[in-house]
Design a protein that fits this description.
- By secondary structure, the chain is of the alpha/beta class.
- It has 14 helices and 13 strands.
- The strands form 3 sheets. A 6-stranded parallel sheet has the order 5-2-1-6-7-8, sandwiched between helices. A 4-stranded mixed sheet has the order 4-3-11-10. It has a 3-stranded mixed sheet with strand order 9-12-13, with helices on one face.
- Helix 10 packs antiparallel against helix 11 and helix 10 crosses helix 13.
- The longest helix is centred in the last third of the chain and has 24 residues.
- The chain starts with a strand and ends with a helix.
Length: about 375
């Protein structure tokens, strides 16, 4: 079986999001095909997870929570992953698949996955390279051997993620050839997308527990090919409004709760639902939303959208079925503060909101110090 989709990342989020959507669409013959999952970190501790992702019987995703007032508690078996490989041990095989089979590339690397590595400047593959550098190597091999068009859909929580990834790859390719640079600009379609689903815990060796709510918003452009048809996939003219609410309400709220958890001494087993069940913490979060976040959305002309979104976000945080560990949210905390808090402060000023935001400003200052 060929795999027209190559996915970089093995996270439980991807398992309960893109992998699940594609699996369900395959059952209806509404997906472009199966997936080759690639672990780009080379983390040997995740070898069992990597192997289990492509088990013939698939892996489970448990959906739990409330949807339109109805309790949801069911398990879906995900069978969209045909093979799973690691760049650390199977680079040559990954190159062959990328060159010969792949039409669409998905990625959801860690928040530090785009961070520059000294190895990025090397002319040939090195496992120490960042994800953009590994992708550049693969695109170069495809250009040399089989220069068909290809589509790249990053799913990292970065504003304009497709264009950011394109810019980075073009920077890394500057020392190659004008023909390859033209290929990257003209034959590679770089797609901006935004993902949203709270995936609270892993199942072992592979699988996850997630809330019913899910969204994959994909920004429309000429020649766009969807990996699959699914009710949770929305093609939109612009991601700007959805992106702002997702990053600067839900993700910002998560990072705020993680900050409070760190300040309280990193209590073992602390979860989002436990934090939001504490009256003082919930009141502080609501004050943050209403006093520091909401004015920016009002200034942006999104007053009608922001109030129901905040309400929905608080309901999602209070989902009693999800054990969303604050220790998980706190991973790569400084990068998340940069992308969710500092970026929000800049966005608020751009929209004309000049109100003081002492809580958020203190979080940014704390990281910078």
């Amino acid at each position: 079986m060929t795999t027209p989709i190559m996915q970089f990342g093995t996270s439980r989020f991807l398992q309960a999001h893109a992998d699940l959507f594609i699996s369900e669409a395959l059952e209806r013959n509404q997906a472009v095909g199966s997936i080759t999952v690639v672990q780009s970190s080379g983390n040997a501790k995740r070898a069992e997870r990597l192997k289990a992702l492509s088990a013939p019987h698939g892996f489970p995703v448990r959906i739990q929570g409330l949807q339109a007032g109805e309790e949801i508690n069911n398990t879906v078996q995900v069978t969209s992953v045909h093979r799973s490989l690691s760049t650390a041990t199977s680079w040559d095989a990954i190159v062959e698949i990328f060159v010969d089979e792949v039409d669409i590339v998905l990625s959801n690397t860690a928040d530090s996955g785009y961070a520059h590595s000294a190895a990025d400047e090397e002319p040939t593959f090195n496992q120490a390279m960042s994800y953009p550098a590994k992708l550049t190597q693969l695109l170069l091999m495809r250009f040399k051997r089989n220069p068909k068009p290809i589509q790249i859909i990053p799913m990292e929580l970065i504003v304009d993620n497709g264009q950011i990834l394109k810019k980075r790859v073009l920077e890394l390719a500057q020392q190659t050839s004008p023909a390859f640079l033209a290929y990257l600009s003209n034959d590679v379609t770089w797609v901006n997308s935004l993902v949203d689903r709270i995936v609270s815990e892993p199942l072992e060796p592979a699988g996850a527990v997630a809330e019913p709510y899910a969204l994959w918003a994909i920004e429309d452009q000429s020649g766009l090919i969807l990996p699959c048809r699914h009710d949770c996939i929305k093609v939109v003219g612009s991601l700007a409004e959805i992106e702002a609410m997702k990053l600067f309400v839900l993700n910002l709220g998560h990072t705020y709760l993680a900050q409070k958890w760190i300040e309280a001494g990193r209590l073992d087993g602390a979860t989002v639902v436990a934090a939001i069940s504490d009256d003082e913490t919930k009141r502080a979060l609501c004050n943050l939303y209403n006093g520091e976040v909401r004015p920016a959305f009002v200034a942006a002309g999104l007053e009608n959208q922001i109030d129901p979104y905040i309400e929905t976000t608080l309901e999602r945080f209070a989902n009693p079925f999800l054990h969303h560990q604050l220790s998980d949210i706190a991973q790569n905390h400084s990068q998340k503060i940069e992308r969710r808090i500092s970026a929000f402060l800049d966005w608020a000023k751009e929209k004309g909101d000049t109100d003081e935001k002492p809580v958020l400003a203190a979080m940014v200052k704390g990281v910078n110090n």
